[in-house]
Specification:
The protein is an alpha/beta fold and 223 residues long. It is built from eight helices and six strands; from the N terminus they run αααβαβαβαβαβαβ. It catalyses: L-ornithine + H(+) = putrescine + CO2.
């Protein structure tokens, strides 16, 4: 792993601190050989046959830095459902990322790492009322919606919450899972949903959409 202050903050972050972390030289070939050797050692020394993964913390730091260079005014909110490993979540929290949580369990996991509630979006347009009430108690004050029923639910369970209107996005090409088939407002539903939020006294802070899992064509959103 590389040196530097961002990496130092990651190594002492909740979720990372106390775990075994190995350092490899950044020479690509030697690093790959070292990681391969580590994997073989783990397999040889363990009687368990369960899956495991190797996390490159320096790569996480580099990718986050690349995001900040390309989009300095945009804070990324990592979708916890992609990989809820506590070391990864802790590393991202130490770097300053926010978190996109789709469930109460994901919110609890992120809060347990010391992440402030203001850094969490409850990104699920169809939530149990009890979980909306939990978000209110936890101080998570932004959530998504795409129906008038959800507006009424949020009004009842979390009246101080801000909303993000979930809209249907175009198929980005090559997606493995197109959640636009399941969630999101159609163009003709946008104004009625904005008016429903206004009648309920709930602020709409912006819009939300899902590009699809495994999307390969960024340009399709411009189209």
């Amino acid at each position: 792993m590389a040196g530097g202050r961002p990496l130092e903050s990651v190594l002492v972050a909740p979720g990372v601190k106390g775990k075994k972390v190995l350092a490899f030289k950044r020479d690509g070939l030697k690093k790959n050989e070292a990681v391969t050797g580590l994997i073989h050692d783990i397999v040889a020394s363990s009687s368990a046959r369960s899956a495991f993964h190797v996390l490159d913390l320096a790569k996480v730091v580099d990718l986050y830095a690349g995001w900040r260079r390309a989009l300095p005014g945009v804070r990324p909110f990592y979708a916890v459902k992609c990989n809820p490993d506590t070391a990864l979540l802790g590393a991202l929290a130490a770097l300053g990322a926010g978190f996109d949580c789709a469930s109460r369990a994901e919110i609890e996991a992120v809060l347990a790492l010391g992440v402030p509630p203001a850094a969490i979006v409850y990104a699920n347009p169809c939530k149990p009322g009890a979980h909306v009430a939990f978000a209110a108690e936890a101080g998570v004050n932004v959530t998504t919606y795409d129906s008038e029923e959800e507006v009424a639910k949020v009004k009842r369970c979390h009246p101080s919450c801000e909303l993000l209107l979930r809209i249907k996005a175009p198929d980005c090409g090559g997606v493995k899972v197109d959640l636009g088939l399941k969630y999101g407002a159609n163009p003709d539903e946008v104004l009625p949903l904005l008016r429903a939020a206004r009648r309920a006294g709930l602020g709409v802070a912006g819009v939300s959409f899902h590009v699809g899992s495994g999307a390969s064509r960024a340009g399709s959103s411009r189209e």
